[in-house]
């Protein structure tokens, strides 16, 4: 299902022409309205005449999270506060929060982009949508809310917290669509089962729209089985708008990027040079339609890949894969780059492994030691020590082949790994550098 | 002879090698009014496998499951051995001659006068019971553990 079929099925050539056009416009707009960009563009000798082909975007300097911090709170805004109608910001756990603003038109754009990804996931005006994202400064709650409302679905703005109560609402109000983080979706399934709910019979859920944290295809399978739904991924970050940047269609093998509103590039995070199409690298995003806060070449730190191959759904927008990690989540263990998602993939391929795991990294002497804690259950427990050891050795072996380094697996008792309401805490790095 | 009578239910519990976990298991059994007849612990650095034979296996199993322990039920064979020098050696010789594979074993003392009881987990329990009774070993029935 489409929301703006004309836009979503434009030819690649038309997309590129539109992008060049909008990029030139935004360069001029930012130059005239944001001192930060004026200085940067002057330093780099950039003006709108610098852009002739889409590749010319590489002449522009990058924007990073630090630029947001340095211009805290409103220094990057291109409009005065009279035009701003909404403020969102990041949690700011690692310093000052990142603040973003929206004009009326920006909210309209955002709403439409969410409507697109919701339609692509098969949501209709007959659906009842339970939103368990936190409502507040976080863009997830309000972002999804208005787009889903726009297509005419009935919204239950449950926000986050109190899982038992969430399940009661999902059941009693007959929710057909669930919106939250993928790890929270699994937690809901777990708590529902514990409270004696027969998910297939008692709940009417059919679609899940999950985002705000990386998750693997194995995790998708698990969520789909446990909750008896189709689970769709979507992606976005507040700095460039919020969710709605990209979302999956019925193919469920990549998220179509709203290329009429953004330019996506994939670069090698070490060399800053573009990678070949289909190769993994850091996603870099330029906004083409934002009024309040135009952003050029924002370094997302998310590692993904992009493909422009035609999709059976008819959309012509390029597809990005599920991010496999973040440049800053990347663990360097004994000199080897390790993404938590690689560990997750190995674990979820083992029959009966619980979706709750945690990676603990310590330094013993000069050596890094990584331990993967996995919750045991009856499927993973053998009465004989020999078989138990064999089972653990097997996981160790699989992890070693996937990661290239030794990590040890430790079985822990059920419910000992902390459950999260928002983003799951997968890594505990105890090393002191 | 009914082979089923000689299958003794054993309960195994996974415990993390952490302070208080063993106690929690025994406390759960106590609260369920279960008496532990025989017990063994196999442990590693990180975790242990506790194995029990109890007077009320069903109650014990349910209580442990309700308390979120990871529990498995399986079957072992109980054999009486003379409580004197060479008693166990003789029995193991028989088992070896009968070509039976032992997965693990543990003792249960003071159960019978002048005799000890050994609990065996065999690879093939039916075969073991049949062969051992033909070899005139004294096997104990499950009901023995209910009474004592």
Per-chain topology:
The complex is a heterodimer of chains A (433) and B (148).
Chain A: H1 5-8, H2 12-33, H3 35-44, H4 65-70, E1 84-89, E2 99-103, H5 104-120, E3 128-131, H6 139-150, E4 154-156, H7 163-172, E5 177-180, H8 182-194, H9 199-202, E6 207-210, H10 217-227, E7 230-237, E8 242-248, E9 255-257, E10 262-267, E11 281-287, E12 298-304, E13 306-307, E14 319-320, E15 325-326, E16 331-333, E17 336-338, H11 340-348, E18 357-364, E19 367-375, H12 385-403, E20 408-412, E21 427-429
Parallel strand pairs in A: 3-4, 3-5, 5-6, 6-7, 18-21, 19-20
Antiparallel strand pairs in A: 1-2, 7-8, 8-9, 9-14, 10-11, 11-12, 12-15, 13-14, 16-17, 18-19
Chain B: E1 8-16, H1 21-31, E2 36-43, E3 47-54, H2 57-66, E4 70-82, H3 87-97, E5 102-112, E6 115-122, H4 125-134, E7 138-140, H5 142-147
Antiparallel strand pairs in B: 1-3, 1-4, 2-3, 4-6, 4-7, 5-6
Helix pairs in contact in B: 1-2
Write a structural description.
- The complex is a heterodimer of chains A (433) and B (148).
- By secondary structure, chain A is of the alpha/beta class.
- Chain A has 2 domains: 1-326, ANL, N-terminal domain (Rossmann fold, 3-Layer(aba) Sandwich), CATH 3.40.50; 331-429, ANL, C-terminal domain (GMP Synthetase, Chain A, domain 3, 2-Layer Sandwich), CATH 3.30.300.30.
- Helices cover 32% and strands 23% of the residues of chain A.
- Chain A is built from 12 helices and 21 strands.
- In chain A, the strands form 5 sheets. Chain A has a 9-stranded mixed beta sheet, with helices on both faces.
- Chain A is globular and about 75 Å long.
- The termini of chain A are far apart.
- The mean pLDDT of chain A is 92.
- In chain B, strands 1, 2, 3, 4, 5, 6 and 7 form a 7-stranded antiparallel beta sheet that branches.
- The longest helix of chain B has 11 residues, at 21-31.
- Chain B is α+β, with helices and mostly antiparallel strands.
- The mean pLDDT of chain B is 91.
- Chain B is built from 5 helices and 7 strands; from the N terminus they run E-H-E-E-H-E-H-E-E-H-E-H.
- Helices cover 32% and strands 41% of the residues of chain B.
- The radius of gyration of chain B is 16 Å and the shape is globular.
- In chain B, strand 5 (102-112) and strand 6 (115-122) form a beta hairpin.
- Classes of the chains: A alpha/beta (433), B alpha+beta (148).
- Chains A and B meet through helix 12 and strand 20 of A and strand 1, strand 3 and strand 4 of B.
């Amino acid at each position: 299902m489409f929301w703006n079929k004309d836009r979503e099925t434009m030819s690649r050539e038309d997309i590129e022409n539109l992008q060049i056009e909008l990029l030139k416009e935004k360069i001029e707009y930012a130059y005239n309205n944001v001192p930060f960009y004026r200085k940067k563009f002057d330093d780099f000798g950039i003006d709108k005449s610098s852009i002739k082909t889409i590749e010319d975007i590489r002449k522009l300097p990058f924007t990073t999270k630090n630029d947001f911090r340095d211009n805290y709170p409103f220094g990057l805004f291109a409009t005065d506060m009279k035009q701003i109608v909404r403020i969102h910001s990041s949690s700011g756990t690692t310093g000052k929060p990142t603040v973003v603003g929206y004009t009326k038109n920006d909210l309209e754009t955002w709403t439409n982009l969410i409507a697109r990804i919701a339609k692509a996931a098969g949501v209709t005006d007959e659906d009842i949508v339970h939103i368990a994202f936190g409502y507040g400064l976080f863009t997830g709650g309000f972002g999804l809310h208005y787009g889903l409302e726009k297509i005419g679905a009935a919204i239950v703005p449950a926000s986050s917290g109190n899982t038992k109560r969430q399940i009661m609402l999902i059941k009693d109000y007959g929710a057909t669509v669930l919106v939250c983080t993928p790890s929270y979706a699994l937690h809901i399934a777990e708590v529902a089962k514990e409270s004696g709910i027969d998910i297939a019979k008692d709940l009417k859920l059919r679609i899940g729209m999950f985002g705000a944290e990386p998750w693997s295809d194995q995790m998708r399978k698990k969520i789909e089985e446990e909750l008896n739904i189709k689970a769709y991924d979507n992606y976005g970050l507040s700095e460039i708008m919020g969710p709605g940047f990209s979302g999956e269609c019925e193919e469920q093998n990549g998220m179509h990027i709203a290329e009429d509103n953004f330019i996506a590039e994939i670069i090698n995070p070490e060399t800053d040079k573009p990678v070949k199409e289909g190769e993994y690298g850091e996603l870099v995003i330029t906004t083409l339609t934002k009024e309040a806060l135009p952003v050029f070449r924002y370094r997302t730190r998310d590692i993904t890949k992009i493909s422009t191959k035609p999709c059976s759904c008819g959309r012509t927008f390029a597809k990005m894969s599920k991010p496999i990690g973040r440049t800053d989540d990347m663990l360097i263990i004994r000199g080897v780059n390790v993404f938590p998602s690689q560990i997750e993939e190995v674990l979820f391929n083992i029959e009966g492994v619980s979706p709750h795991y945690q990676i603990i990294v310590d330094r013993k002497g000069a050596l890094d030691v990584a331990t993967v804690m996995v919750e045991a259950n009856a499927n993973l427990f053998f009465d004989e020590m020999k078989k138990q050891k064999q089972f653990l050795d097997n996981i160790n072996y699989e992890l070693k082949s996937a990661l290239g380094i030794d990590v040890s697996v430790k079985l822990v008792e059920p419910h000992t790994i902390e459950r999260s309401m928002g983003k799951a805490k997968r890594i505990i790095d105890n090393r002191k550098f | 002879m009914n082979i089923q009578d000689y299958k003794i239910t054993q309960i195994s519990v996974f415990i993390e090698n952490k302070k208080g976990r063993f106690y929690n298991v025994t406390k759960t059994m106590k609260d369920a009014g279960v008496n532990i007849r025989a017990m063994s612990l196999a442990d590693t650095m990180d975790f242990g496998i506790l194995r029990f034979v109890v007077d009320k296996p069903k109650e014990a199993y349910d209580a442990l499951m309700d308390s979120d322990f990871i529990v498995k039920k399986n079957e072992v064979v109980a054999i009486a051995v003379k409580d004197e020098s060479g008693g166990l050696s003789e029995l193991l010789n028989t088992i070896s001659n009968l070509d039976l594979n032992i997965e693990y074993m543990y003792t249960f003392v003071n159960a019978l006068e002048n005799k000890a009881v050994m609990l065996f987990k065999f690879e093939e329990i039916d075969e073991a019971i049949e062969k051992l009774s033909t070899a005139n070993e004294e096997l104990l029935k499950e009901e023995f553990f209910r009474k004592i």
